[in-house]
Amino acid sequence: MTTPMPSRPVVLCLSGHDPSGGAGLQADIEALLAQGCHAAPTVTALTVQDTVDVSDFRVLDREWVLAQARKVIADLPIAAVKLGMLGSVEMVETVLELMQQLPGVPLVCDPVLRAGGGGSLGKDDVGYALRERLFPIAAIATPNLPEARILAELPEGSAEECAERLLPHIGHLLITGGHGDESEVHNRLYCADGSHHDFTCQRLPGNYHGSGCTLASALAGRLALGEGLVSAVRSALDYTWRTLRDAEQPGHGQYVPRRLPLDAC
């Protein structure tokens, strides 16, 4: 009789569906596979989008989301949870309800508020609900600078100013760079204990669809594998940079990260 393979760590993903395959749950699944994890994708929202921008979205009924996630939680040992697009305050409350069933499980919050093309992926009050309700139970949040400004309610704030406003709500905050014109991308990890870690990487040409989903999912995967938080951030950033370096342009818009090696596609 053959010995069964050891189970891969399971990451519960609560994210939206992107029909272009560049972001959302497909990005989560591919990035987690690359870390050696199993993705359990729970759909929170449906979107109408391509690699250029998003034109519409619909948040699913909370009972459907609860039913999906509860089935998974009852069946699989959840090692981490990754949040992507929630889209409504009701969905924020849904996540809070689910996390009560997962005490001690690390939660990675990717506060998806805008698509790469600029289109909205949530109502105006979602950012406030994320900050006030979900940040306190999350291990880390991974906003880019425009998202951090929305969350901190500082339209022109620097990364440092946004972190100062947000850290009372969360223990670790990774504000990603790449939205200015600097020659190097600076990704800054701020911790509630006052420590600060700066990760720099070469700036790549082009615009990318799904880079934030890729990073947050890879980070959740590293945490699910038991890696320490600072090391997991570094591993996830390195992996994400490689996916952008090898990105392709399948449509008329942004580049899509290549999250899996060619021999795995």
TrEMBL record:
User: Keywords in UniProt for this one?
Assistant: Kinase, Transferase
Q: Which SUPFAM superfamilies match?
A: Ribokinase-like (SSF53613)
Q: Name one GO molecular function term.
A: hydroxymethylpyrimidine kinase activity
Q: Which GO terms describe its cellular component?
A: cytosol
What pathway does this protein act in? Answer: Cofactor biosynthesis; thiamine diphosphate biosynthesis
- For this protein, what is the EC number? 2.7.1.49
The record's Pfam families line, in alphabetical order, gives:
Phos_pyr_kin
Protein's UniProt name: hydroxymethylpyrimidine kinase
